[in-house]
Automatic annotation (TrEMBL):
GO MF: oxidoreductase activity
Family: Belongs to the short-chain dehydrogenases/reductases (SDR) family.
Claim: Signal is one of the keywords in the record: no
Protein name (Swiss-Prot/TrEMBL): Short-chain dehydrogenase
Listed InterPro entries: NAD(P)-bd_dom_sf, SDR_fam, SDR_oxidoreductase
UniProt xrefs under PANTHER family: SHORT CHAIN DEHYDROGENASE, SHORT-CHAIN DEHYDROGENASE_REDUCTASE FAMILY PROTEIN
Domain of life from the UniProt record: Bacteria
Keywords of this entry: Oxidoreductase
Classification via Pfam families: adh_short
Keyword Oxidoreductase: yes
């Protein structure tokens, strides 16, 4: 039996992972804004479900919840930082409050969770930390600038954090799904464009739902994504990044290939800015 700590368990991947883990006999420390939403699971699985109310943007309370979970449950094998949401709207039209909430929830909160669990994981000799990201941590679509900001930002944090904590047996994985048939768009904060200057543009159409993809056309299966995340959490040497979905694989593969080709085209100018007495590494 393993013990998992998961944020954002009221719905989506967090809820499905909690269900699957309890069904296989594991123990789950589930955090969410309204713990009564897991009453049905508590009735079926008893004390293998540990619940705590948590707004991930409340850093002080998050630290208390993390400390309590480790104190009461002992070893926690896998931490899943899953809470987050989407923000859709043109950068020019988003409010200051929307921008702050997106960064607080999708960037600051995961950083603070990682910081809170680090001393506990180090003390027990390690553990796995899964951070839900997105294929949107590699690519970008119009009308999602702040969402992409949050995903590119958290990926940068975990690139460095992984190097810092690896000596302690802490393994991190960025989970990068493509489009999955969940209520992501239904739960997203969407600001329809009202500025005449953007009328008829792809970005404005997207904010009005004209370019949205219907659930039945999305390739990702929510249950299969949750199952894959559990398999990754079980690994002794998990990957630093894991794409999930054929669309995520294809789009990210194409984006990285194009980025590498662009870098190759910049080689001459890049090398030309070195000091005359510097010998560059062979590339």
């Amino acid at each position: 039996m393993k013990t998992w700590f998961i944020t954002g368990t009221s719905s989506g991947f967090g809820r499905r992972m909690t269900e699957l883990l309890l069904e296989r006999g594991d123990r789950v420390a589930a955090t969410l804004r309204n713990p009564v939403r897991l009453d049905d699971l508590a009735a079926r699985h008893g004390d293998r479900l540990w619940r705590a109310e948590l707004d991930v943007t409340d850093t002080a309370h998050m630290r208390k919840v993390v400390d309590s979970a480790f104190a009461e449950l002992g070893r926690i094998d896998v931490v899943v930082s899953n809470a987050g949401y989407g923000l859709i709207g043109l950068a020019e039209e988003l409010t200051d409050e929307q921008i702050q909430r997106q960064i607080d929830t999708n960037v600051i909160a995961p950083i603070q969770l990682a910081r809170a669990v680090t001393p506990h994981l180090r003390a027990q000799g390690g553990g796995n930390l899964l951070q839900t990201s997105s294929m949107g941590g590699h690519i970008a679509f119009p009308a999602m600038s702040l969402y992409h900001t949050s995903k590119w930002g958290i990926e940068g944090f975990f690139e460095a954090y992984a190097l810092e904590t690896e000596p302690f047996g802490i393994h991190t994985t960025l989970i990068e799904p493509g489009m999955v048939a969940t209520d992501f768009y239904g739960a997203a904060d969407i600001t329809p464009s009202e500025l005449p200057a953007y009328a008829g543009t792809q970005a404005a159409d997207f904010t009005h739902g004209k370019n949205s993809v219907p659930l039945e056309a999305m390739p990702g299966d929510p249950r299969k994504v949750a199952e894959a995340m559990i398999r990754i959490g079980d690994l002794k040497e998990p990957p630093r990044r894991q794409l999930l979905g054929s669309d995520a694989y294809s789009l990210v593969h194409d984006a990285l290939t194009a980025r590498l080709e662009s870098a190759e085209a910049q080689r001459e100018i890049a090398f030309s800015t070195d000091r005359d007495d510097f010998t560059p590494p062979s590339v």
